[in-house]
Design brief:
Blueprint (H helix, E strand, L loop, with lengths): L6 H15 L2 H17 L5 H22 L9 H21 L11 H23 L13 H12 L9 H13 L2 H4 L7 H14 L13
Helix pairs in contact: 2-3, 3-4, 4-7, 5-6, 5-9, 6-7, 6-9, 7-9
């Protein structure tokens, strides 16, 4: 596949982004930790709060990363940005407005997969990036597409069924697009998107509802 940018330009976008938005990366990571805490310690408003965080993360990567930075080297970034904003809108509509998303920490294979993806996105991914020679600021930090996608699917593994399949569509699509970076751009840590995509597809199949009705937040 012929890419419209070089590997140097690709990592140059990360450098420009990280230098320009600092310390937003710390704020985005704090939001991720807050979302995980709200899964573990449930409140009646936890589902809406987690959904709002996911909506903000996807709106950020759509507007700030794709449209403001990545579009400088890849015209398709505007399409990626639009799709990311659509994902943000779905999280906001389903989770904040309609209150269709409820999260609960439970035991089992689905939860284990969710924990593994969250740990990978927040801890293993940046460590692997460093070991692979992608040093800050020329490295994908949390809040950018690949780690954010893995984190998102990790959180969605804790959804209480039934839940709307629509919230999984954009993250799973990005797994298909983003995993190519592992081979085409020398980003081996993005292989985690293959696992995330498989988990996302399993969640789609097991949702038991195409569009869930409001769930009991208790």
């Amino acid at each position: 596949m012929q890419l419209p940018f070089t590997i140097e330009q690709f990592f140059g976008v990360f450098r420009a982004y990280n230098n320009a938005v600092w310390p937003a990366q710390v704020f985005l990571l704090a939001l991720a930790i807050a979302a995980v805490a709200l899964v573990a310690v449930r409140r009646h408003w936890s589902g809406a709060a987690i959904s709002a965080i996911l909506a903000l993360l996807w709106a950020w990567l759509g507007l700030v990363y794709h449209c403001a930075f990545f579009a400088a080297v890849n015209p398709a970034a505007l399409v990626f940005g639009g799709v990311s904003l659509a994902g943000a809108a779905v999280f906001f509509w389903q989770g904040v407005v309609c209150r269709n998303l409820s999260f609960k920490a439970v035991a089992g294979g689905r939860a284990a997969a969710g924990v593994a993806l969250i740990i990978f996105a927040l801890i293993v991914y940046p460590a692997w990036s460093h070991l692979a020679g992608h040093r800050y600021p020329a490295t994908p930090t949390f809040g950018l597409p690949c780690p954010t996608t893995m984190f998102t699917i990790g959180l969605l593994a804790f959804l209480v069924r039934p839940y709307p399949r629509s919230v999984l569509v954009v993250p799973v699509l990005w797994c298909v697009v983003g995993v190519q970076a592992a081979f085409l751009l020398g980003v081996p840590q993005d292989l985690g998107l293959g696992v995330a995509g498989a988990v996302g597809i399993a969640l789609l199949v097991r949702s038991r509802a195409g569009a869930a009705s409001p769930v009991d937040p208790r």
